[in-house]
Structure formats: C-alpha cells, structure tokens
Amino acid sequence: MDYKYIEQLLERYWQCLTSVEEEQILCHFFSQEEVPAHLQRYAPLFACLQQEKKVGLSADFDEKVLARVETEVVHARRNTVRFRLLPLYRAAAVVAIVLGLGFAAQHSFEQNSEEVGVSYNYSDYKDTYSDPQVAYEQVSSALKAMSKGLRDAGLKQLDSTWVKQ
Asked: pLDDT tens digit string along 55-78?
C-alpha cells in the first residue's frame, strides 16, 4: 500500500503547516492497528494527542484560575468640590504668604527710613565735597559706627562659640 499522502502530511505537520482536519486524519491513521513499520515510531505521539483530547477540565477549574488571577477590587474615591479645588487653595495660600511678606518688608523699610531720617531716593542726596570738614566728620562717624558694630558682633561670637586664647 502507498502511504505517500500520510508521509506528505507528516512533513507538513513537522513544518507546522497542517490544518486541524489534516491533523485529525493523521491521528485517525495512527490509531489503527496496522501501521507500517517505517511509520510506527510516530504512533505514540499521535496516540498521546488522542488521549489529551479526552482529558477535560475539572468543574472547579474556572474558580481556581480566577482565584489566582483576581486582584483586590479598588473602589473609586468620590471627588468633592473641596477636593477638586484643593490645588487652587494651595496656590492662593502661597500668593497670600508672598504678598504678606512683601508688604511687611516694604513697611519695615519705610518705617526704618522715617525713624533714622534716611532717604533711599538718590536725587535727594547732597554732595558734601564743597565743605571738606563736614565730609570728613560724616565719613569718620560712619566708620566708627561700623567699627563698633563689627567689634560688638565679634565679641558676641567670641563669647558664645569660640574659645579665647
């Protein structure tokens, strides 16, 4: 008997080109009792395929798979108007803080300049070079005040953190 068609199907089967019907033909052929000797080595493979088709899934298969796959259900949080406007509240708070600090700084500068009598308007400054004695006295008093301030700050720092030698 010529088994050329079965051999061609086997070649196509090994190349993964067979259809389901052709694979059923091969399974049916190898399930017969009389299989040629040169094709006998493939009989256990196709017999195994037949047995695997008979094996079914258990009744609780779906439950087992779902138990392993399912994750915890996360419920959505309700977004209230307050929650939606929270970023705007934060931005308004930042703007209020910045404006408050700016106004406080401006007020302190104006208050200090009124108390000391210092004007930050440079057009109000007068040149004292025409009278050298007055210029010398002003520079001398400014340098003395600066020297006293530095000396006081240095002594405070020496007393609190440094060890005198």
From this structure: 777 888 888 888 888 777 777 888
